[in-house]
Amino acid sequence: MTQTKQRVAIMYGGKADEHSISCISTASVLRALDAERFEPVLIGITRDGVWIVDGEDPRAWDLAAGLPSVEQVPGSRPVVLDMSQGGDGFYARNADGTLESLGHIDVVFPVLHGPNGEDGTIQGLFEMLGVPYVGCGVLASAASMDKHYTKVLLDNAGIAVANGITLDTRAFDADTQFAAQGETLLNMVEEAGLQYPLFVKPSRAGSSFGVTKVDRAGDAVSGAAQLAAAVYEAAQHDWRVLVEQGVDAREIECAVLCPVAGQPVQASLPGEIVLDRRAEGDDQFYDFDSKYMDKQASHVEVPAHLPEDVLERVRETAIKAFKAVDGMGLSRVDSFVTADGDVIVNEINTMPGFTSISMYPKAWEASGLPYGELITTLIEGAIESGAQR
Hints:
Rossmann fold; D-amino Acid Aminotransferase, Chain A, domain 1; single chain; alpha+beta; Dna Ligase, domain 1; 3 domains; 17 strands
């Protein structure tokens, strides 16, 4: 008897800055997908937010060839949803205006990063449709996407976070107005007792977009100008901006997995992104180029070269943080580990990268769960969790 394949709507692209990383992650997911169990239904989202099917096949995308993008091409069709039909409510609009069913969708795997993909908005849509989906729910997605509110929840749960302040930049959204705020910003930093270097970052963005390291140099005037420029850069990605005190520590990442809601949460061996140019004296931090574009800039080590008790503390903290934001499915918890072994949580990524060089799948592979089995576990867990609702 032939077993019916479960149909998985794999969504990728989107309006966020991380559009291309979503595309590359999707290529990796599709190559690893168990073709005997699952039938993928590919739904791309253009940078303008248009959902399409019959676009370019993501399997051909490779980061070495450049950053891909979801585009409307000849033959591609827009996707239309009928909210009343649940998993049967996915349609494509033909050129003549008629609607053609995409067939029943058993589960959605939103390989989407950033705003409109990882922030609870599309998760709420799936909840309204009544369709199971891979990943965290609305609350965890929204709270973890916003670094300010992540810190609020973690601090309330007794988990250490970096010292910092949060700015609302909507009142000064022009170049000259930002420059004029430099002295005020500098005073706020000093009043908060923050130590340099500072990291200025948008509250709701990923892949280090809009992040600037600020070393206090020169007099107060130049320091104020440098800080204002960093806040302006972050504000291009989000009006809510964090100014955080740099932590003298190693950056350690831990993959968390809870495929079925209510089951025990698992944590992988923690890994470390080693910035290779720091050994050469370069004042490097983990920006977008170091993550994805420059293969000589960094490499992954799993497990991180830390004492066993510290590694276990990182895992325990990652699980505690995941629970604090009401996590489900998966997340990657990024922490700072000081020379004294203290663990400070930096952020939580509810849909981490799934590229061939991404920490999340690498950490689980090193922990004994191969990439393909990880994908299967996530999809089947989402279906089981959906059936429990």
